[in-house]
Design goal:
Mean pLDDT: 92
Strand order of the largest sheet: 2-3-1-4-5-6
CATH class: Alpha Beta
Helix content: 25-40%
CATH architecture: 3-Layer(aba) Sandwich
Domain Pyruvate/ketoisovalerate oxidoreductase catalytic: 13-190
Pfam families: POR
Keywords: Oxidoreductase, Pyruvate
Number of strands: 6
Order of helices and strands: EHEEEHEHHEHHHH
Strand content: 15-25%
GO molecular function: oxidoreductase activity, acting on the aldehyde or oxo group of donors
CATH topology: Pyruvate-ferredoxin Oxidoreductase, domain 3
Protein name: Indolepyruvate oxidoreductase subunit beta
Radius of gyration: 16 Å
Number of domains: 1
Largest sheet: 6 strands, mixed
Length: 191
């Protein structure tokens, strides 16, 4: 790999954005990449935005991704995808969970949730994969595995299937959740 890859994870507090980033980072480290990760919790405990930036390659000096430089954005919630779209580079790839979480201003009626988000994203981005990761995870047994479904889709986009991701997850996720996450990862890679 000659050029570094910039991955931006965006979601809402409680969706598992940081866990997915940690699994990715650990796997990349084990595979021999230089990796830097940075996370931002914006009122995450109250349903606020969470972003994680992961950069990997031969040599990485900073974990920060500037606007227009993300090779891939993985959005755990579709309005977060729209909000972070300026970070995606031209020709970059967008993986979106077709899922809505209403922020407090929407819940109290002060604002409206954006309409036709998926259609707008499809018009703005050539390389886009929209999947219902939440439903896929729920069908597997627990909606909380949506993060690993999305991680699986990302690994497919990056062609990183050669890493033993199940082994990586085994050291990170709780033992009682391992089988579910193993299925979720496979589901996302096949989506």
């Amino acid at each position: 790999m000659k050029k570094n890859k910039n991955i931006l994870f965006v979601g809402v507090g409680g969706q598992g954005t940081i866990l997915a980033s940690k699994i990715l980072t650990e796997g990349l480290l084990q595979y021999g990449y230089d990796v830097k990760m940075s996370e931002v919790h914006g009122m995450a405990q109250r349903g606020g935005s969470v972003t994680t930036q992961v950069i990997f390659g031969e040599k990485v000096y900073s974990p920060l991704i500037e606007k227009g430089n993300a090779d891939v954005i993985v959005a755990f919630e579709k309005s977060e995808a729209a909000r972070c779209l300026p970070y995606l580079k031209k020709g970059g790839y967008l993986v979106v969970n077709d899922y809505e979480i209403y922020p407090v201003p929407v819940l109290i009626g002060a604002e409206k949730y954006p309409e036709k988000v998926n259609e707008k994203l499809k018009k703005a981005v050539d390389n886009i994969k929209i999947l219902d990761a939440s439903k896929m995870a729920e069908d597997l047994g627990n909606i909380k595995a949506q993060n690993v479904v999305l991680l699986g889709a990302l690994l497919n986009v990056l062609n990183l299937e050669e890493v033993d991701w199940n082994k990586v997850m085994k050291g990170i996720v709780p033992e009682k959740a391992f089988d579910l996450n193993k299925k979720a990862l496979k589901s996302g890679m096949e989506a």
